[in-house]
């Protein structure tokens, strides 16, 4: 009896944690005014016919606040990495000296900052919706258990309260991530 409630709660919490992790990844890949290796997370390079993330082909370092340095382990991949960065939607211009690629991170304009903040808010809202969808699914599963007579009405109510607590907890985490990202974006 209680096992199925526990299973629903455990599954829901796992899915909500995944939504928070996804929010963390998506927000990290939104460009701010400072250099951050996670900017390159979504860029894949055509490496001998295989789409490969830059982090698997090179070391990425941040020697200064506005500079990324990419040092490929295989120097022959330099041109492909450069091409992938240029064709990405990040608007970055790589400079290669034949052994490393340097990327100057330009200062963001006020308008671009607001656009990025808007993108971050939309991303966070998408993840909040994902958490709420998990809540809805869990509550439906609990209703089915109650309808089948597997659990009592009181058990269902208590379990739904627990699902709501999980929902509140993970939405609060997403809100904190968004708040931090917005501060980072709007900081001049």
Percent strand = 5-15%
The CATH superfamily of the largest domain turns out to be: Ribosome-recycling factor
Cα Rg = 22 Å
CATH-scheme architecture of the largest domain: Orthogonal Bundle
State mean pLDDT (0 to 100 scale).
Answer: 88
* Helix content class: 55-70%
* CATH topology label of the largest domain: Topoisomerase I, Chain A, domain 4
The backbone outline, from C-alpha atoms, is elongated
What is the number of helices? 4
Largest sheet: 4 strands, antiparallel
Structural class based on helices, strands and sheet pairing: alpha+beta
In which order are the strands of the major sheet placed?
3-4-6-5
Measured distance between first and last alpha carbons: 56 Å
Q: What is the total number of structural domains? A: 2
- The string of secondary-structure elements, in order, is HEEEEHEEHH
* pLDDT < 50 runs, ≥5 residues: none
Number of strands: 6
CATH class of the largest domain, anyone?
Mainly Alpha
């Amino acid at each position: 009896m209680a096992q199925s409630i526990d299973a629903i709660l455990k599954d829901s919490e796992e899915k909500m944690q995944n939504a928070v992790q996804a929010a963390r990844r998506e927000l990290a890949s939104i460009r701010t005014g400072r250099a951050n290796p996670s900017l390159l997370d979504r860029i894949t390079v055509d490496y001998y016919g295989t789409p490969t993330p830059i982090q698997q082909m090179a070391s990425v370092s941040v020697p200064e606040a506005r500079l990324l340095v990419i040092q490929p382990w295989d120097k022959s991949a330099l041109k492909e990495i450069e091409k992938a960065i240029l064709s990405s939607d990040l608007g970055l211009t790589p400079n290669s000296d034949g052994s490393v690629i340097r990327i100057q991170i330009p200062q963001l304009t006020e308008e671009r900052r607001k656009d990025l903040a808007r993108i971050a808010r939309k991303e966070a809202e998408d993840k909040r919706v994902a958490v709420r969808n998990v809540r809805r699914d869990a509550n439906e599963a609990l209703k089915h258990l109650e309808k089948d007579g597997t659990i009592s009405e009181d058990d269902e109510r208590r379990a739904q309260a627990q699902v709501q607590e999980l929902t509140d907890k993970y939405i609060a985490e997403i809100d904190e991530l968004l708040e931090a990202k917005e501060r980072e974006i709007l900081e001049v």
